[in-house]
Amino acid sequence: MIQHRSHTYGVIGEFEKPEQLVHAAAKIREEGYRFYECYTPFPLEGLPEAMGMRRNMVPLITLIGGLTGGLGGFGFQYWVNVISYPLNIAGRPLNSWPAFIPVTFEMTILFAALSAVLGMLALNGLPQPHHPIFNAHRFTHASADRFFVCIQARDKKFHLEATARFLQGLAAHHVSEVHDD
Known about the structure:
Order of helices and strands: EHEHHHEHE
Distance between the termini: 20 Å
CATH topology of the largest domain: Alpha-Beta Plaits
Number of domains: 2
Shape: elongated
Largest sheet: 4 strands, antiparallel
CATH class of the largest domain: Alpha Beta
Low-confidence stretches: none
Helix content: 40-55%
Strand order of the largest sheet: 2-3-1-4
Mean pLDDT: 93
Number of strands: 4
Number of helices: 5
CATH architecture of the largest domain: 2-Layer Sandwich
């Protein structure tokens, strides 16, 4: 069966059809596992729902970044033109907000874009030069024609032999242990 090593990342199961993976993901969630990932060569309809995935935080992070950039850009211009170095040119008001709009807009876009990219990278745990899942021998098929699910060892319900039997019971063709090293 499966031999146990000291640095186990999890147990991976291979499926031939997308429907099998969606069904397996739903069963894994029903069984109470929380730390598992599915790998497919193309997006599968219904897989996020079967896994119980929530909406991500990237839109909120982008909104907060955009608001921070816009308020920061406007605030900096206000501080420079009204407080730090006021210049009375032709009797115009010091706080001429229409003149502040281009910089405010550009700072909003810049901070929103940077927040979106950095937030996405942080939430995905990237950059990660090497992931333990690449240690699985048959995982090379994940980008071509096979569907995989990996239950991680950090899950509270994880027990190597019991989890392997559970995946085999879900009609996984190959079940193997994934090592961290």
